[in-house]
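testing teh design pipeline on a random one, pls ignore if ur not involved
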């Protein structure tokens, strides 16, 4: 795990200035990493930038750093992958957020579908804050610099109605046998003309129990493409990670560089 990388949200970072670290980041720097004045950590702005930050004050109640020049981190993938994840039990949904962030998913949308309404109704503000924290920690750990967006839960019907022009929408489904995810992407790229790579791929992953047949029919009418992830039935959380990894890899955007802690 890269040591001393912390996302600073809700404020602007500026080179050359001093700032007090948020309480949780200060605790990590002072009590976990045991950094002292003169040591350096890196602060992320969530928009592609990293700032070296030299500790100038380390006290029980505050830690102050001086920021160096902004450096560009790893480039944002040219093709955005937006993951519409059917609502799951807490631990499984959080695992999808963590692993999706590590892979390079650009945005997460909790999806309300026929078999996932009850779970979505429990997605209150406290849970949203927890989800944001999980995404931030995954970004710090994986070496990424672009903070994925986290949207409010959305009904499948709304998500399908708002598909933007030029986006490729894929819906993994156990009933699809002929078209693989890779084949669907290859076809979409081949039809791209002057812009062979789609600017955005939207992945629709069903909840536990999958999508209902009527939902698949609705998705097809909206322009989504049913795809297969292989001959085996995958759990929803597994399907999400496999689909995201295959998509990013097929588009040449795989972010995996090695193993971390």
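output:
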């Amino acid at each position: 795990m890269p040591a001393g990388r912390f996302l600073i949200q809700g404020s602007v970072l500026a080179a050359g200035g001093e700032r007090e670290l948020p309480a949780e980041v200060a605790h990590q720097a002072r009590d976990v990493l045991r950094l002292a004045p003169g040591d350096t950590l890196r602060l992320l702005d969530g928009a592609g930038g990293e700032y070296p930050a030299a500790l100038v004050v380390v006290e029980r109640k505050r830690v102050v750093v001086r920021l160096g020049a902004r450096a560009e981190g790893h480039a944002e993938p040219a093709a955005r992958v937006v993951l519409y994840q059917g609502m799951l039990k807490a631990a499984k949904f959080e695992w999808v957020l963590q692993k999706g962030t590590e892979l390079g998913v650009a945005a997460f949308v909790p999806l309300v579908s026929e078999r996932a309404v009850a779970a979505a109704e429990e997605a209150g503000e406290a849970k949203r804050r927890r989800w944001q924290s999980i995404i931030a920690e995954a970004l710090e750990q994986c070496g990424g610099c672009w903070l994925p967006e986290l949207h409010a839960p959305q009904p499948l019907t709304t998500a399908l109605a708002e598909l933007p022009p030029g986006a490729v929408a894929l819906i993994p489904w156990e009933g699809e046998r002929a078209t693989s995810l890779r084949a669907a992407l290859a076809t979409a790229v081949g039809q791209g003309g002057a812009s062979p790579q789609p600017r955005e791929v939207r992945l629709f992953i069903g909840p536990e129990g999958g999508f209902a047949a009527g939902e698949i029919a609705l998705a097809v009418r909206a322009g989504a493409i049913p795809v297969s992830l292989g001959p085996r039935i995958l759990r929803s959380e597994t399907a999400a990670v496999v689909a995201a990894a295959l998509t990013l890899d097929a588009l040449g955007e795989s972010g995996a560089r090695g193993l971390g802690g």
